[in-house]
Structures are given as C-alpha cells and as structure tokens.
Structure prediction request, 316 residues.
Amino acid sequence: MKTVLVLIPVQEKHKKILESATPTVKLVYENPKTVSAVQVQTSEIIMGYPQPDLLKDSQKLEWLQLQSAGVGPYAKEGVLPKGVILTTAIGSYGVAIAENMLGVLLELYKNLHTYRDLQAEKKWFPLEKAKAIYNSTALIIGAGDAGGEFAKLLKAFGAYVIGIKRTLSSKPDYFDEIHEPDKLDILLPKADIVGMCLPGTEQTKKIINERTLNIMKPDAVLINAGRGSCIDEDALCSALEKGHLYGAALDVFSTEPLPMESRLWKIKNLILTPHIFGGLRISETLDRMVNLFAKNLAAYIEGKPLVSVYDPARGY
Prediction:
C-alpha cells in the first residue's frame, strides 16, 4: 500500500474527498512545519511543500503534487530524485486571482486608492476623472485558468475581451478573440486593460518592456498576476512617472519581498500587493486544490495520465 503524505491544511470534508478517491492508499496528514525527514523520505506520494533538502534522499518518492501553480525550487537539478513525477496546482487559483485582479482594476478605475489617501488626510473633494469597464477592450496575456476567470468577470461588466494563449484551442464564450503570442504587438495598442497571467519562463521574461509599454494606450491599465520576471520594472516606473498609462497593479515582482529601495513604492497610481492574489485565503481555492489532487490520485493509482504535469521544456 502506497503512503500519501498530505502537507496542506485540509478539513474533514477534504479528507473524505481524498479518502473516497481511492481506498488502496494510506493517507497521512501532517503539518509541513513539523513533518519529519523520515515521513518525507518514506512516502511514495506527497502533496504540498516538503522541504526541498529532504527530497534528494527520498528513495521511495514517485510523485510530488505541489500546492502552487509554479514549481519554484522543486524543478532544480538534484532536488527531486530522477523519475519522480512533478505536478502543480494549476486550475486551483483562478477564481481567487481573477477576483483580486478585478478588485485592483476597480480601485484604479474609480480612484479608490486616492480617496483612501484623502480620507487619511481628512480631505473631502471629488476627483474629476474615472473610467468604466463597460465598452472597454481588455487584453489578457496568458488565457489559462486565472486569465480565463478574469475574462469571465470582465465580460460580465461589458468589456470586449481578447486573449493571448500559447496553444490555441476552441474559443470559450467569455473571449471575443483568441490569438497566439506573436500577435502581442498588434493587440497591445488596442487594449484599455492589459491583464497578465503568465508563467516565468525565458520566453516571457520582460515581455512587457520599454518598447511594448510605449505602444500601449496612454490611458491603459496594466495588471500583473503571473510572475514578476515578465515585466521590466524600471521601464514600468518610467512610463508611470511620465504619465504614460492610467495606472498599474502588481502582485508579483522580480525580487520578493520588494526591496525598500525599489522605485515602485513611490508611484501614486501603482497598486502593490505582496503576492497575495493566489494562496489559500479563500475556501474555494483549497476546495479546488483538493478536488484536483483527488482526481490525480485516482488516476495515478489506476495508471492513467495526470493533469497539470510540469513540462521542463515549457517551463511550467
């Protein structure tokens, strides 16, 4: 019987889901902060974030299911024993990320961040300008799980929604258009809203830079919920400082935590959040993650293909 070590904060309802997925495994629930090296190194399947330095000596490990959409240190050479399958939690975070993206978009469009500053100063006066999502054009770069959920919300607000996706498939109803990445330069100048949900790969590194920022609309809003490496932060600072772009919101950064000396801290029309768009802060995320793992677990025991398998060639 294979041992499945679960290192995420499951509730009783989640345990029932996992236990009903397959009766032929031994499920062990542990706190990732107190789990022992022996438990990590004697489990065939692990769900969560085990300490990377404990994995190299795991002679029995067959499959590691991460609780994140990215792979972090787990894809580095020598961390996992050869032959171990690595899967991510892509598909779990879409709702949480999309709602946060909508939140910061409305904050910028309706000047809520400025009104909050005025409140602290006990100043009472209306600002002259605001923007509407209705009748706007939105470009979502990375039209996967999170990008698709954001598209649904924007579509409900009356936006025309364009997606960019590496692999084209059938177009969902919540996208008006879907294109491949080579159309980025054509689509950026059309967008009032640019939402980024990209993985951090060599292909996506600084995809938003001085050149691409300059071809964006001068009153566009840029939101990054993917990886910080996808934006040239100095170029973004310069664009915002000279009044090119209505505003921006970043939840991810090239260096985290964001260094105190970063130019980003001082820009008024820039919303900064400390990489909190995903995570397990809403119950829906944990529910989706458990259901994803349960399906993968049943498939693994039955010898069927898993979903969200990490592909080193793609980088995600």
Remarks:
- The two ends are 31 Å apart (CA to CA).
- The longest strand covers residues 2-6.
- The chain has a mean pLDDT of 96.
